[in-house]
Amino acid sequence: MIRVATGSRDTVQDITGECADFLGRTGARDGLLHIFVPHATAGIALIELGSGSDVDLLDAMRALLPKDDRWTHSHGSLGHGRSHVMPALVPPYATIPVVEGKMALGTWQSVAVVDLNVDNVVRNVRLSFIDGG
Asked: How many CA atoms lie within 13 A of 64 on its CB side?
């Protein structure tokens, strides 16, 4: 498990390096890396980072899930209910093929935690390797 400090604002946090480090520690060769964030208000995205796509994703989430008082689930900070809807759009898991000990990501793909919940500033991420034999 890794801990990710997501802070007190909407964020897309790169965890690609931590995932690669995990695979190195396990001695993984070929199989599947499963990434799971056990929180009701965070997700895992495979996305290009560093070129503005992370900002675009957050802008899209803000447009789809406004931070206002429309949400039935309304405890916590303003718009907290949107954080509980977000995992239906950005799921709390991803599974990535591993080939010769490396994630078989596309050229520009990265692994990121997406978090709109400003009430929880640290997230746990569970990493599992399933050996492909």
From this structure: 15
Q: pTM for the full model? A: 0.94
CA 89 – CA 97 distance, rounded (Å): 22
Q: What is the pLDDT of residues 9-20, one digit of tens each?
A: 899 999 999 999
| CATH of residue 45 | 2.60.120.460
Confidence of residue 71 (pLDDT cuts 50, 70, 90): confident
Give the span between the Cα atoms of 44 and 37, in whole angstroms: 7
Which helix (H) or strand (E) is 55 found in, with range? helix 53-64
112, 55 contact by CB (below 8 A) = no
Q: Check: CB of residue 11 under 8 Å from CB of residue 3.
A: no
Boundaries of domain holding 107:
2-131
